[in-house]
Amino acid sequence: MTAEPTITLERDDIQAPVLHPRPTHYAGTMILVRIDERRAGRELLRRLIPFVPSAAGPPDPDRAAWAAVALSFQGLRALGVPADSLASFPPEFQQGMAARAADLGDTGESAPEHWEAPLGSADVHLAIYALAPDSDRLDAVLAGARDALREVSGVAPLWRQDTYMLPNERTSFGFKDGISHPAIEGSGIPGSNPHEEPFKAGEFVLGYPNGNGELPPAPQPEVLGRNGSYIVFRKLQTRVAAFRQYVRAHAKTPDEEELLAAKFVGRWPSGAPLVLAPERDDPALGADPGRNNAFMYAADDARGLKCPLGAHARRTNPRDASIIGVARMHRIIRRSASYGPMLPEGVLEDDGADRGILFVSLQAQLARQFEFVKTQWVNDGTFFGTPPDKDPLVGPNDGSGVFTVPQQPIRRRLTELPQFVVNRGGEYCFMPGLRALRWLAELDA
Ligand code: HEM
To answer: What stretches of 96-163 show up as alpha helix (H) in DSSP?
Structure first.
């Protein structure tokens, strides 16, 4: 047997969230900033860098608190990054998320003209994203950033989104999230699925070989790209009452309601996966990090009789299931967090509150990872053999959506699915390594 070649990840140069999972209990904030004057932007970066921890810190997510800094293409331009360097970024990043709306399925209510200001505008330059196990540690990690924003003139904070874990420790739809994480070779941080091979670092971090044995395309000069990652954020509003109403109306018996909702997600409310617990929720399994992601699809559920091929979690990471293409090429890391109050259990009427997820993903290539997952797996069912089916939970359904639930003797087809998730806006940003952040802060032209 030949030994696997080992790579050394420069963890002390990679920003913490690229490698560190979100704490189980958390409080978070995202702040978006406009840079009105390039020198002020660089000064802000200089002041922020000491508060941006690297991924070399403790691997235990429940002890970790971090603030991360990322820049949109417009932000890099506002900082005065040279034109040849700007031109070396991939086209989808240069265009920004709003310009990609038609392809991404951000149409109708999710279209950029309905986004929350300033999302989708050329004013979103710099994002500060912080997550901590509690609000005290969040305040501590953000204190330096807040001082810098107050004291540096020529930069303007424009938007802020607070996030926190709901009292039931689940997302607003009622399901535990943040369970499945890939292992990254050389990171020293375990993934959550013992049956899944670790991923090459270059799937998530620039400067290292990816699964194809190639270096992912990186912006120039080398110091700017190395140890960076692309971060996608989207404020996704959830229509919880509409989801509950749909499930209530389509369950054949009251007892079937929870199972039907779980078929949408691929997991039970506790987080227990349908593949391992096909008939009823198993809270002990859902709570056990050693078991709640220890499964694949091909051997145990090839036909989707336990977990439908089109369930949200299965289609966004089909693992070893038989699909067109290679699932491992499209893996993303998620660092999402909930916002807004929970709709009390059992309530079926909408209370008008804004609630949902600040969806955050990290990857080395926007087009091959986030954009592929969204356009091909969430918005379309071709890859899973059910072309008309979009993601039943988060896909852009419009009242005519279809969801196929394999079962014996004949499959069940749910129809007239409305849209349960609306995009309120987002952006593509580049999360540079720490050396690159210093390079940006020291630009002098
Ligand atoms: C409001 C919107 C969303 C909600 C409520 C939601 C909820 C969930 C839940 C409950 C899980 C299962 C827990 C886990 O495996 O960690 C999950 C998994 C996942 N979701 Fe979402 N999600 C949302 C949007 C999205 C979007 C837009 C994408 C991608 C474009 C996405 C990609 C994923 C991926 C990759 C997984 C992991 C699947 C796995 O590895 O088994 N999610 N999501």
So the answer is: 101-104, 135-151
- Ligand 1: residue whose CA is nearest its atom 38: 313
User: Distances from the Cα of 240 to the Cαs of 49, 70, 79, in angstroms?
Assistant: 39, 31, 40
Helices (H), 217-361: 222-225, 240-250, 257-265, 283-287, 298-301, 312-316
Q: pTM, whole model, 2 decimals?
A: 0.96
Task: Tell me the C-alpha distance between 201 and 328, whole Å.
Answer: 13
Q: Ligand 1 pocket check: which of 358, 394, 419 to mutate, most ligand atoms within 8 Å of Cβ?
A: 394
**Region label for 315, one of left (φ > 0), alpha (ψ between -120 and 50) or beta (otherwise):** alpha
* Alpha helices (runs of H) in 49-90, residue ranges in sequence order: 73-78, 83-86
180 within 8 A of 193, measured Cβ to Cβ: yes
Per-residue DSSP letter, 276: T
**Closest by CA position to 272, among listed 292, 301, 290:** 292
Rounded to the nearest angstrom, the distance between the alpha carbon of 13 and the centre of ligand 1 is 28
Distances (CA, A) of 423 to 97, 107, 117, 359, 392: 11, 9, 13, 10, 15
Over the chain (445 residues), the average pLDDT of each successive run of 10 is 65 95 91 98 97 84 84 98 98 98 97 98 98 93 94 97 93 96 93 95 98 96 98 98 98 94 98 98 97 95 96 96 87 97 96 98 98 97 89 96 93 96 98 98 93
Cis preceding linkage at 118, omega within 30 = yes
CA-170 nearest atom, ligand 1: 10
Instruction: Pick the atom of ligand 1 nearest to 175's CA.
Output: 10
127-151 burial by CB neighbour count: b if 16+ within 10 A, else e? Answer: bbbbbbbeeebbeebbebbeebbee
The token duo for 120 is 């989708």
Pocket of ligand 1 (CB under 6 A): 171, 173, 175, 177-180, 236, 238, 265, 267, 312-313, 316-317, 332, 334, 356-357, 359, 373-374, 378, 394, 421
User: Could you tell which of 333, 334, 428 is best to mutate to test the pocket of ligand 1, judged by most ligand atoms within 8 Å of the CB?
Assistant: 334
Q: What is d(CA 380, CA 365) in angstroms, rounded to the nearest whole number?
A: 20
Residue 126: both structure tokens together: 């710099």
User: Which uninterrupted H or E stretch holds 18?
Assistant: helix 16-19
Q: Name residues whose C-beta falls within 8 Å of residue 277's C-beta, 6 or more positions apart in sequence.
A: 268, 285
User: pLDDT per residue over 336-367, tens digit each?
Assistant: 999 999 999 999 999 999 999 999 999 999 99
